[in-house]
Design brief:
Blueprint (H helix, E strand, L loop, with lengths): L5 H18 L1 H24 L18 H23 L11
């Protein structure tokens, strides 16, 4: 994969995304479930390796621990997740106004 041009990866991702958009919201939701499963399995495997992690190497960046970092990123993460949820669902909303 080191010798594969990045254009090939970009075209592949573009093609798969186009197929998902053409398939509709159900395909996007099912692919999100698959991606979440892959992410969670990767995170679990990293947690199993945490015993080998040397926290002392991170101290210049995490001088006060993880809590200030997590507290500072919580609001931004919540806003971005809501923004992307609305961005995914917006094309499927009904824009017709009822005339009465």
């Amino acid at each position: 994969m080191d010798e594969t041009p990045s254009v090939i990866f970009s075209i592949t991702i573009l093609f798969v995304s186009a197929l998902a958009v053409r398939g509709g919201i159900e395909v996007i939701a099912r692919s999100a479930v698959i991606c979440t499963t892959l992410f969670m399995s990767t995170a679990l495997s990293l947690l199993l390796l945490i015993k080998d992690l040397e926290i002392g190497y991170m101290l210049p960046f995490l001088e006060n621990g993880w809590l200030p970092v997590l507290r500072g990123s919580f609001i931004h993460q919540a806003w971005f997740s809501e923004f992307f949820l609305v961005a995914f669902l917006y094309p499927f909303m009904n824009h017709s106004k009822k005339k009465g």
